[in-house]
Amino acid sequence: MTFGTAGRDDGSFPRTRARYVLPKLGCAALAAATAAVVWAASTTAIRYHRHASAVRTGATGTLPPTELPRPPVPLGAFVGSGPEAVERLEGFEKWLGTPVTVGHTYLPGETWRGIEGPADLIKAWGKWRAADPRRMLVINVPMLAPNEVWMPDVVVSALLRGAASGSYDVHFSRLAERLVAAGAGDAIIVLGWEMNGITYTGRCAPNPAMWKIYWRRIVATMRSVDGARFRFDFTPSRGRDAIPWTDCYPGDDVVDIIGMDSYDQPTGMTFADFVTEPYGLRAHADFARAHGKPISFPEWGLFRNSDNPEYIQGMHRWFASHNVVYQTISDYCPHGVWRCADNPRSSAMYRLLFGKPPLPSPGMPPVPSLGGPSGPSSGPRGSAASPTVPTVSPTVSPTESGIR
């Protein structure tokens, strides 16, 4: 997704991020949905506990001493890009009931001035990052401007040739200087995301060789700024798309994290399909392990399969069983769970699994074991046989907390 769009762009869904007009979801409706999901999760968990070969626990649902849970994956949500989103993220945190330590924003890609970083955006997010040492700031940075105006491949290829020769270095130097000055010199930079698709000007397929050289120039330029400690996240969209994303990989020395944007699409696919499809979740984890890199999920959420709590469960278990640096859900319709009233069952499931305290995913079979750094070690993060599932009551909604 981008500053203006979300998910893989097939032209079928308008996904503007500038403003959000959200229908209200009453507390009674959300409470009913939550109760239904909790009841279903509880009964499914009991069935799974009886028949699975998962780790057995005592009556209290605690792990054996030799299998202590690992900390949950740092989480966040995209709730907007500008300064107003910093306040909105506080509302999401209150609703969820657990610390939200990942802030996620996008630089506007309409002009090079936007890619250099709007002062108010950088100041607000830098202040948010500096307020808590546990926090990490994730910034999606376009590689070319304008980023979301369609251009023929021949034009994109020519732009990439110029970029690879240094035509745009100055813009990334200015961005790095501004981030360092704002206290965000350790931000995670998601550069040229979803490069394997056709949505963005800064895509890879028209000229993969020049695209990789350009990526390397940007990283070298930003790292050269005094005080810079950026980490660079190479993030394709799940699946093959216009080009295999592995053909765009610029090299281990200029990539710190290998991410993936993964939405619940296309229609009719199961989570197992997302794992096994070519260039899907398993391929992503395998590739990262082979290159000695951790993984991330800068964008994920519901989409073509509507309100689908099974997808939320699947992603929760995938995060818990892999070496994930961070994950941030895209929280607006149709993808979201807090600010989208269209997904009440998934909203309840998200709060159940990611809220305080986070729980193992109930009723889901173990994810395929991959081994190595990106696979499970002594077991999934926080894994155990399914404990008693507590009731989750919707205490704070976006409307009630004054966040819209």
Automatic annotation (TrEMBL):
<dbReference type="InterPro" id="IPR017853">
    <property type="entry name" value="GH"/>
</dbReference>
<comment type="similarity">
    <text>Belongs to the glycosyl hydrolase 26 family.</text>
</comment>
<protein>
    <recommendedName>
        <fullName>GH26 domain-containing protein</fullName>
    </recommendedName>
</protein>
<feature type="active site" description="Nucleophile">
    <location>
        <position position="299"/>
    </location>
</feature>
<dbReference type="Pfam" id="PF02156">
    <property type="entry name" value="Glyco_hydro_26"/>
</dbReference>
<dbReference type="GO" id="GO:0004553">
    <property type="term" value="F:hydrolase activity, hydrolyzing O-glycosyl compounds"/>
</dbReference>
<feature type="active site" description="Proton donor">
    <location>
        <position position="194"/>
    </location>
</feature>
<keyword id="KW-0378">Hydrolase</keyword>
<feature type="compositionally biased region" description="Low complexity">
    <location>
        <begin position="369"/>
        <end position="404"/>
    </location>
</feature>
<keyword id="KW-0326">Glycosidase</keyword>
<dbReference type="InterPro" id="IPR022790">
    <property type="entry name" value="GH26_dom"/>
</dbReference>
<feature type="region of interest" description="Disordered">
    <location>
        <begin position="361"/>
        <end position="404"/>
    </location>
</feature>
<feature type="domain" description="GH26">
    <location>
        <begin position="59"/>
        <end position="363"/>
    </location>
</feature>
